[in-house]
Amino acid sequence: MYALMGIIAGALLSMQTAANARLRSFVKSPYVSALISCIVSLVLAILLLAVLHVGGKLPGADFSGTSWWMFLGGFFGVFVLTGCIILFPILGAVQTTVLPLFGQILLGALIDFFGWFGSAGKPFSLRFLAGIGILAVGIVCVVILPEQSAGKKNTPVLRNSQKRVCQAAAVLIGMASAAQATVNGRLGRVLGSPLYAAVISISTVVILALLINLKQGTLKSAGTLFRGRAALWAFPGGVFGVVFILLNASLAPVVGTGSLMVFSVAGQLLFSLLIERFGWFYAQRKAIRPVQILGLLFIMAGVVMVEVM
Predict the structure, then answer these.
(1) Domain of 234?
(2) Cβ atoms < 10 Å from Cβ of 238
(3) How far apart are CA 52 and CA 62, in angstroms?
(4) CA distances (Å), 240 to each of 8, 19, 42, 136, 169, in order?
(5) Are the CB atoms for 173 and 30 separated by under 8 Å?
């Protein structure tokens, strides 16, 4: 049951990105899409916070032990959220999942090794380095080999270079996600609940996204939500995000962070494949090649070596 819940949590991440990308197709701006999604998440998180607090199941927050860097989660979050929305139509569901995952694990290892953000220092091991190597092989199988087998190696240099920039950006997004998770996790422990950290982080993303939209002059495009079925896409991304936070907060103390990471990655990989193969959430359909399936198995094996064994 716990494994299934962890897989569902990972699936929600893939579905959140796809739903937010679909929302962008109506509002035309990734920043408006991010703003709408986070407003939905924030409203739901505050309502849940109020219910738990009134019911006596949540202690009051104590800010006396906080430091300034514990409030940076929202700054990382706005980069992660808008970046995934922008890259999803370019790279597809699978690459928008596996490349950030690689960056997340790399920076997570550096955070553990150097003790950044108040984490306990942890040295590298041969098992960890072998796991990273297997992950890299999986990335090559998923990203590089399919392009070459499809004859894309003869595409113009500028086009290839642009795609490589997008792929590098996806890895950086994963690194920002690792930093966000570490910062929010630390803030949640200090405040007494991860839900407090989630509300603060989402609130920061809302404020930053609002400021960006005001500067870009893109808020007027939000009016398209009131036309036809567009309004239906205002809600799924935010709902998926809140449910993911709750599942993670509930499962981590029970199954452990490493096992939760494995289950979550399995859900992300599985549903990114399904989204791309069947065009769910109106994503562009792409054939899944055998070498990509092999690559995803390598990625899972690498994640198990890094996080569990």
Answers:
(1) 2-307
(2) 24
(3) 16
(4) 10, 9, 12, 29, 23
(5) no
* Rama region for 115: left / alpha / beta (φ>0; ψ in -120 to 50; rest): left
DSSP three-state, residue 285: coil
Report the SS3 class of residue 183.
Answer: helix
Longest dimension (CA), the chain: 63
61: left (phi over 0), alpha (psi -120 to 50) or beta: beta
Please, what is the end-to-end C-alpha distance for the chain in angstroms? 21
Is residue 158 pLDDT above 70, yes or no? no
Report pLDDT digits (tens) over 176-189.
988 888 888 888 88
Per the confidence metrics, is the pTM higher than 0.85? Answer: yes
Which class for 115: exposed (0-12), middle (13-18), buried (19 or more C-beta within 10 A)? Answer: exposed
What's the chain's length in residues? 309
Helices (H), 192-235: 194-216
Q: How far is CA 182 from CA 51, 199, 211, in A?
A: 26, 15, 25
Split into its structural domains, the chain has a count of 1
The answer to whether residues 235 and 19 touch, using CB atoms and an 8 Å cutoff, is no
Close Cβ partners of 188 (under 8 Å, ≥ 6 residues apart): 194, 195, 196, 197, 198, 249
Q: Given the structure tokens 């098992």, which residue do they identify?
A: 127
Q: Which of 97, 136, 93, 122 is nearest to 301 (CA)?
A: 136
Best CA proximity match to 216, nearest among 19, 16, 81, 33: 33
266-276 tens-digit pLDDT: 999 999 999 99
CA 304 to chain centre: 19
SS3 (DSSP) at 59: coil
